[in-house]
Amino acid sequence: MDQTRTQQPFQTGESFAREMDAADPLAMYRERFHIPTRADGSEVVYFAGNSLGLQPKSVRPIVEQELEDWGRLAVDGHFHGKTPWFSYHQIFRESGARLVGALPGEVVMMNSLTVNLHLMMVTFYRPTPERHKIVIENSAFPSDTYAVKSQLGSHGYDPEAGLIVVKPREGEHTLRTEDIEQLLDDRGSEIALVMLAGVNFLTGQAFDMQRITAAARKKGCAVGWDLAHAVGNVPLSLHDWDADFAVWCSYKYLNAGPGAVAGCFVHERHGKNPDLPRFAGWWGNDPETRFRMHLEPEFIPRAGADGWQISNPPILALAPVKASIDIFDEVGMPALRAKSENLTAYLEFLLGQQPGDFFQIITPREPAARGCQLSILVHDAPKKRFAALEEQGVICDFREPNVIRVAPVPLYNTFSDVHRFAVAIGAT
Ligand SMILES: *Cc1c(COP(=O)(O)O)cnc(C)c1O
Q1: How far is the CA of 36 from the centre of ligand 1 (A)?
Q2: Residues 6+ apart with CB under 8 A from 298
Q3: Burial class (CB in 10 A: 0-12, 13-18, 19+), 368
Q4: Of 216, 247, 298, 414, which sits with the fewest C-beta atoms within 10 Å of its C-beta?
Q5: Which tens digits make up the pLDDT trace of 186-220?
Q6: Mind listing the domains of the chain with CATH numbers?
Q7: What atom of ligand 1 comes closest to residue 143's alpha carbon?
Q8: Nearest-angstrom CA–CA distance, 246 and 248
């Protein structure tokens, strides 16, 4: 699979971008998405797929199918719809697992990301006075910080003192794996949970999840990964890495729409354990007895990640997730990743050709330590330059005080998009 290493010797001209597009084996997938346009009808350069992925054209018919089944069948749709609602979540059993390197049964699509994070912490954050600390990374996504702090507080621990934030070294922007390992080595016995992002939202750094998981588990810490910026972006092997749990949202690289139903991974070794504490609801119960309602007051969790479900699934919201995951299943992460490494390296190359030094890239240079996103720290007039990009039809995003995040997404972005971006930033 060393297609991932076939990096081209890049050239600066626009014709080179067109040649790359012509030779791109995934080029036809762009056609499967709605690309936003400007007032004059021209397509924007959409580099904000790390925030909200574009709409697959297959979403509308799949949602309409559910509307039709509801209209035509009403309550009978639970068992006689085209995709029966009773077992709707099970359609992701194989494809959802493939996406994150899990076994069938280790993944369930449910709720939203932060809700799943809380549900996972109910089970896997089991603090004691000697071991109650939670490790997160510097500039973690705010929702994650709020979630872990409120978990500390709800167990009666001081949210500030209970949190260990791993920081970059002086003068650096990203974390070093060896520093995280050192921290775990030194303080592992105080740490109940290591909860890091697979890819940091701000810097675009992809952590060495395998090494960090191993180091944390060696010290007896539980390990959970927030894969919001990792899923559909970088290759994942959650089962083999032996993480305890992981959570992710589906509206960024997975393109399942605003507020889409999120994902959750529970390792098989826990999925088999009905005695684990959890917040229960009827959909996590054994389906054999689920509809016996008042006759069965005892909660019997079903095996696997499914046993952490609480409510019956929102079908209209799950349908786009199916449309989206089907595309990933068809393309496969290896092919996507191969294009992604090339596309991002090309962006890095063109940025390196820019005259002057008004910015620096803070995302790691090694392909293994990043996904598709590059984070550009702008030293000079960052807001003005960001506005100038927008005026030129480039959609990316700005994080206070001075970071522009740019995500060329391999499913629908082109080498020509990257070229247009480079020209546009040069003109800011
Ligand atoms: C996008 C993102 C979230 C969003 O949380 P929701 O519960 O989906 O609103 C949380 N954490 C991280 C790391 C994110 O990137």
Answers
A1: 24
A2: none
A3: exposed
A4: 298
A5: 999 999 999 999 999 999 999 999 999 999 999 99
A6: 14-32+332-426 (3.90.1150.10), 63-330 (3.40.640.10)
A7: 10
A8: 7
User: Which pTM value belongs to this model?
Assistant: 0.96
Copy the structure tokens of residue 151.
């978990």
Q: How far apart are CA 428 and CA 417, in angstroms?
A: 17
Instruction: For the beta carbon of residue 278, count every other beta carbon within 10 angstroms.
Output: 20
* Three-class SS of 260-282: CCCEEEECHHHHCCCCCCCCCCH
Query: What does the radius of gyration of the chain's CA atoms come to, in whole angstroms?
Result: 22
The residues, any chain, with a CB within 8 Å of residue 39's CB and separated by 6 or more, are: none
Query: Which string of b and e fits 135-158 if b means at least 16 CB within 10 Å?
Result: bbbebbbeebbebbbebbeeeebe
Percent of the chain surpassing pLDDT 70: 97
Query: In the Cβ-directed half-sphere of 42, how many Cα atoms lie within 13 Å?
Result: 9
Question: Going by CA atoms, what residue is nearest to atom 10 of ligand 1?
Answer: 143
Q: How much is the pLDDT for 355? A: 87
Residue identified by tokens 């080595």 is: 185
Q: Please, which residues have CB within 8 angstroms of residue 394's CB and are 6 or more apart in sequence?
A: 44, 45, 47, 420, 421, 424, 425
Task: Establish whether residue 405 lines the binding site of ligand 1, counting it when its CB lies within 6 angstroms of any ligand atom.
Answer: no
